[in-house]
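Example record used in the benchmark description.
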Amino acid sequence: MAYTTINNGSLFMNPKIYTGNGSAGNSITGVNFQPDFTWIKDRDNTRNHVLTDAVRGVTKNIFSNTDGTESTDTSTLTAFNSDGFTLGNGTKVNGNSINFASWNWKANGAGSSNTNGSITSTVSVNTTSGFSIVKWSGTAANATIGHGLGSVPKMIIIKNISDAYYWVVYHQATGNTAYTRLNTTDASSSSLNMFQNYTPTDNVFYVSSQGYVNGGGGNQMIAYCFADVQGFSKMGSYVGNGSADGTFVYTGFKPAFVMAKRSNSASSADWNIRDNKRSPINVASQVLQANLSSVEGTASGTLIDIYSNGFKPRSSGSGVNAGSSLYIYMAFAEAPLVGTNNVPANAR
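Model output (structure tokens):
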């Protein structure tokens, strides 16, 4: 059984859907904790994803679907609160009568200095849930960066927020010689030595002199680091079988959030995001893409079912289940299959 110390995943990572009201001071509650990283997407309109975290600070936005730099916008997320967040009157996060999705993670506030790496970083970390936010000043040289997790991160999402470089993703399934771009459909590539060909340790991860991961001239860098936590989070992979009865992917918990991408092809290789709030019953059909500004869709080629112990593609489409193709994913729990309280997760 997949016992875990986290019996309620929604206390550490929680999707929250809401409807904007167009007014500054709109308080979104029901997240169940004070988030330190909030990712918002307009479901009804073609607009950028907006990512805000407590280390960079409120009103500081980056966009998962573009290579753009950080922007300051006082009409976006203006405060992290004990049970959610407060919004300004900006249409991209709070348009009147517009439906939004938000995905929220708990770290540990604005962070503190970490000297484990060759570059001193600022780290906000929750070691229980295996998540940290890491910020540092780039040096355009090979370096190590302290992440604070005390365990090995299995997925790291990096952005140079000072310059127009694409997002870089390290994933344990593609290894330390390859990287994947969050803001494109590109297949995983080993064309650039992003991570010095070293696997992260329980203290540091490795970055090269490439501007994408360690830009010089005072470039500011941000990374979101995720470890596997039994019964709560999984940075895994699966191989598609090309059938409408897809490959079953065991996570050991009932997922609240799944983001997956076909990593060995650029064909229909979006970063598809599903969650338990937009799709509370099976089939989980409501999908947004981290690399696209598109409206929410229900494309048949991206369908999955969510179970008490994992998920299964319900399509032969290349977006989720092309035969013999490798898919990388990150998933977070609504509830463990079995927690320390011996209560099993219910099926949907």
